[in-house]
Structure formats: C-alpha cells, structure tokens
Amino acid sequence: MATDQLSVIFGALADPTRRAILARLADGPATVNELAEPFAITLPAISKHLKVLERAGLISRGREKQWRPCRLEAEPLREATEWMSRYRQFWESSFDKLDAHLRTILKGPEQ
Amino acid sequence: MATDQLSVIFGALADPTRRAILARLADGPATVNELAEPFAITLPAISKHLKVLERAGLISRGREKQWRPCRLEAEPLREATEWMSRYRQFWESSFDKLDAHLRTILKGPEQ
DNA sequence: GTGGTAGTTTACCGACTAGCTAATTAACCG
DNA sequence: CGGTTAATTAGCTAGTCGGTAAACTACCAC
Questions:
Q1: Where in this chain does the record put each HTH arsR-type domain (chains A, B) (predicted)?
Q2: Residue A64 falls within a domain, yes or no?
C-alpha cells in the first residue's frame, strides 16, 4: 500500500475486523483482550490490526498497569470525509437520477 | 482484502493512482489512454486499477467504437461517507478538545 | 487483406498482508 | 522469588497487490 496519509487511512478501513474494532471503541476505550473477544482470531492478529489502526491515527493507546487501553481517534475520519466531500455533488445528482427513475416506475408500465 | 462492499470501496480508495483517476473523472468521462496519460505506469497497470474501481462501483464503462470511455459513479462514496458519519460526533468533539488546548496555549505558559 | 490505434489478458515478479504458533516482554499478585 | 495475566515480537505460510512484458482482441482506414 502507498504511504501517503489518505492511503493509510483508507487502507486501515478496508478491513471489516478493523471497522468492527472502531465501532466497539465508539462505545468507549477498551483493552486489547476486550477488543479481541468478539473475533475468532488470535490475539497477535488483533495486535497487528491495532498497529495498522494506530499508524492511520485512528486509535491511540495508553498504559495502565499491565493493560494497554485503546481509544478512538476520529480525526482521520474527518480528513477522509473531507476528501470525499469533493464528490458529493455527483452522488447527489445520481440520487436525483434514481429518484426520477423511481418516479417513472411508480407511474406504472407505459402502455 | 475482504469481499464485503465497504471493504472493496475503501480498498479501491487506498491507492493514490486510483484516487487521481477519480479526480480526473470528476471533470467528465475519459478514455483509458486519457486516464493513463498523467501517470508513469504502463497501460495494463491502469487497466487493473480501472477494474478495481469498477468492482467497487466507483466507475462505469461504455463502449464507443474502439474506445471504452469511463465515467465516475459516486454512489459508493455516499455509502462510505454514510458509514463514517457515525463517528462525526467524535471528530467534532476532538476538534473541541483541540480548540480548548489551543486556548490554553494561547493564554501563555503557566508560571 | 495490411497496418495502426485502443485496450485487455496472461504470465510472471517482488513486496506486502492476514493469519497462525511459539516465544518473549511487562506488570501484577502472593 | 515464582506464577499469572496482558500484550507484543518473531518466524512461518498462503494469498493478494502493483507493477512489468508480451501476446491477444477489437475496431478503423487504406
């Protein structure tokens, strides 16, 4: 994967396990074991995912006794959303097209 | 990469060449050679990128004589933005934190 | 037909990724 | 100290990714 910040962010989001970890962290900080619990993968695999998320700036990690609590950092999501917002006009216009299409359908078959 | 739709979308966006292609397509449809022109990579590489973008639903392709014009399809970007919007409160609140931090700094060093 | 232009497919390569197991570090508890 | 829990590191495998060169398809013009 490329090393520019947006690529790292999108790359981190391109994995359902990592997105699920972010979703869990939206409910508050959690330890690595707590984050791992819902998944059928080993702790080292989770550890790697956390490193990817950390590199993307999507989480930060503290130190408390023997635990290393993770917390959500959403700033990169703001950046990513900002990048996408440039295209908003396009999906809004395609929504308009869908809307028009639905209207046509709801008018019933032309005969 | 995982095969769920969001993963495919984010995976497609996790490459600067592909994001540049989308940016170019925001100015209107283009042929493969037109899209390839700004890049120092071969045509087959561009062809692969286009396939990734197509699989993510980010572009669609027509057929006109010997050309296969590409056009932007922004609907997946809407989906991705929608997914991220769940976290908006977090980046807004961390902006608040930054704001507060800056205020603290601007008050000058406490002594 | 020949030849040129537009683009894709195939086969290959090196780098990276996601997963595993096993070993290791770090911090606590008794 | 030894034992337990929390988490990371190391080393491996299998698969994917971004790129290439070479061959192929499709269309147009002569």
A1: 1-92
A2: yes
Give 10-residue mean pLDDT values along chain A (111 residues). Answer: 92 98 96 96 97 97 89 95 94 63 47 33
**Taking the C-alpha atoms of A48, A54, A58 and A62 in order, what is their torsion angle to the nearest 10 degrees?**
110
Domain extent for A59: 5-106
Q: Total domain count for chain B?
A: 1
Q: Which helix (H) or strand (E) holds B61?
A: strand B59-61
**Residue B95 pLDDT > 60:** no
Strand D footprint at Cβ < 7 Å?
A 1, 31-34, 43-44, 46-48, 50-51, 61, 66-69; B 1, 11, 14-15, 17, 40-42, 44-45, 48-49, 52, 65-66
Question: How big is chain A, counted in residues?
Answer: 111
Q: Which of A4, A11, A72 sits opposite B90 (nearest CB)?
A: A72
